[in-house]
Fold this sequence. Notes:
Blueprint lengths: L5 E6 L4 H16 L7 E7 L5 H15 L7 H8 L2 E5 L5 H18 L4 E6 L8 H8 L9 E5 L7 H14 L5 E3 L7 H11 L13 E9 L8 H7 L1 H18 L8 H14 L8 H4 E4 L1 E2 L1 E3 L2 E3 L17 E6 L11 E6 L6 E8 L19 E7 L3 E10 L5 E10 H5 L6 H10 L9 H19 L9 E2 L6 H8 L10
Parallel strand pairs: 1-2, 1-4, 2-3, 4-5, 5-6, 7-13, 9-18
Antiparallel strand pairs: 7-14, 8-12, 10-11, 12-13, 14-15, 15-16, 16-17
Helix pairs in contact: 1-2, 1-13, 5-6, 6-14, 9-10, 9-14, 10-14
Bound molecules: NADP nicotinamide-adenine-dinucleotide phosphate.
The site of NADP nicotinamide-adenine-dinucleotide phosphate (NAP) has 19 residues, from α1.
Amino acid sequence: MNIVPTIIVIFGGTGDLTWRKLMPSLFDLHRDERMPKQFAIIGVGRTPCSDAKLRERFLAGVKRFSRKGMAKSADWNGFARHVTYQQGDYSDPATYSNLEKSCAKLEKDWKMKATRIFHMATPPALFGVIPKMLTDAGLNRDRAHVRLVVEKPIGHDLDSARKLNRTLTESFHESQIFRIDHYLGKETVQNILAFRFANPLFEPIWNRRYVDYVTLTVAETVGVEERGGYYDHAGALRDMVQSHLLQLLCLVAMEPMVSFNADEIRNKKVDVLHAVCPIRVGSVNECAVRGQYGIGRLDGRPVRGYRREDDISPHSPTETYAALKLFIDNWRWQGVPFYLRTGKRMARQVSEVAIQFRAAPHQSFPPESGRDWHPSCLVLSIQPEEGITLCFQAKYPGRRMLLRPVEMRFNYEESFGVPSPDAYETLLRDVMDNDPTLFVRADMVEAAWRLLMPVLEGWANDRPRGFPNYAAGSWGPKAADELLGRDGHFWRPSA
Ligand SMILES: NC(=O)c1ccc[n+]([C@@H]2O[C@H](COP(=O)([O-])OP(=O)(O)OC[C@H]3O[C@@H](n4cnc5c(N)ncnc54)[C@H](OP(=O)(O)O)[C@@H]3O)[C@@H](O)[C@H]2O)c1
């Protein structure tokens, strides 16, 4: 347990993220005795609210979203007394002088300097305002004790991301800034590093000599839900590829780190983004596919199309599906295509990376032995299944030599017998421990935007024709299958 007293100030204390993710995770950390002995959580918002009302709302969130389920009242009461609400406008200096007074009082009571964590869980339009106001109030000064947490999205494009990073670093040192991509907090995502670099078995074949191609899929069955207003201005490329998918790509393709040091790991990751062959604006259609879902069926029930969702323009050109084909220009990966795809209202919720190995160089078995013959494939399943599967050929029992595909599986829960913590539990605990390994550095954010800018510009200048172009409940537009089909490759999972 961390012994440093900690004050967590959540701007956007009345908001959805706080209710759905932050408070259930903080409460679960408390139940696991992983919160500091002395801590305080101050929710900040403009809405008039009392401590009691806020706690009531948070308890409802815990009941719905906590990994550990219902709260025992003794546990909840023990936690809730640490939670208070402060009403205030984010651009009013009084909000910040009041916060300073609250923090100073807590430190006086605890007779110790506390770690102060300012978590921006507000709409991104406020990401520039809050750090500046914290600076004006002198709340950013103590570099050793003050941290700033920033939720995604970091910018809307390269220029806005650079501008936001400049604003953040005018007020805080980069080492104090924790940019969240919650995918990085998932156990299965962290396990990519363990799997690759703790097992010398795989590293020698993790390269262009043995790997034919790689597919990375983040498929959702949900539509835009209540996020239509945001999503219609963002789209799949900004919302998912710029962050989660490119972070996954980095972990799969990076060189081994020399030590388990936050900056060493992040340097190796950003090297991947720097090595990706730039996409030319003129050739976007050769390596990128976009799509938008229309009406369809999911789990046997009819589903409306994107343009009929709440807060979505009936003529919206926003993509709800994006696929990219990328190459990494280095010794390890020269010539190996990496196919990335993400979509809403897809047939199944699944996030996985599939490493497709090359075919055997010489086929010694008679042609009739391999009816379902496929080269070996290694699947890193991120969610909802959590594990690793190696798919290979084996002899079918009997007198004849018949080859059939089989699977060797590792499943997290079966192997370890303990449930994985929620990604936010891991990330919030890491902020308290001042460990930035799983957070996104300014240069990584900008490198990711730089890579995608030609696609964003190409798509903005060429209004999509034929939207909607995939049915809700399907695996996306036909053009995305053709993107791989042209190379003789296919997506995994394919159905
Ligand atoms: N929700 C999620 O699951 C999720 C997941 C990943 C990342 N995020 C990111 O986390 C951040 C917060 O998301 P959220 O869904 O919690 O947002 P939200 O519920 O829309 O807003 C959070 C709070 O900010 C205040 N607010 C809203 N609009 C405002 C405005 N125009 N001016 C000033 N204050 C305003 C509101 O509090 P008051 O009116 O009381 O001030 C609101 O309760 C966003 O950057 C989002 O992209 C959210």
